Amino acid sequence: MHKNKIVIIIMAKFASIITLIFAALFLFAAFETPSIVEAQRLCDRPSKTWSGVCGNNSACKNQCINLEGARHGSCNYANPTHKCICFFSC
């Protein structure tokens, strides 16, 4: 009978510790401020410095960023061929 009381006391303490851990995690999660990132709208236009057909996305991107001050660049199909398109903040 004495062993049963000890087991119950140990289980009660264990349950209290688990409850305390979950409460701490809940409070931590509740006070964590979510970071809201505003999506920037991008406008596109053909590169002013690229010549010829665009077949290398990386080169187009580097040229748009470094030479034209764009945020991004990629080769896109613009009838009748692939052109280097630069993307700027609107």
What features would you describe in this structure?
47% of the residues lie in helices and 23% in strands. The longest helix has 30 residues, at 2-31. Strand 2 and strand 3 form a beta hairpin. The protein has helices at 2-31, 57-68, and strands spanning 42-46, 72-78, 81-89. It has 90 residues and is α+β, with helices and mostly antiparallel strands. The termini are far apart.
Number of strands: 3
**Structural classification:** alpha+beta
Return residue spans where pLDDT drops below 50 for at least 5 consecutive residues. Answer: 33-37
Using the alpha-carbon principal axes, give the shape.
rod-shaped
Question: In which range does the helix fraction lie?
Answer: 40-55%
Summarize the structure.
This protein has about 90 residues and is an alpha+beta fold.
Relevant terms:
single chain, 90 residues, alpha+beta, 3-stranded antiparallel sheet, 2 helices
Describe the protein's topology.
Blueprint: H1 2-31, E1 42-46, H2 57-68, E2 72-78, E3 81-89
Antiparallel strand pairs: 1-3, 2-3
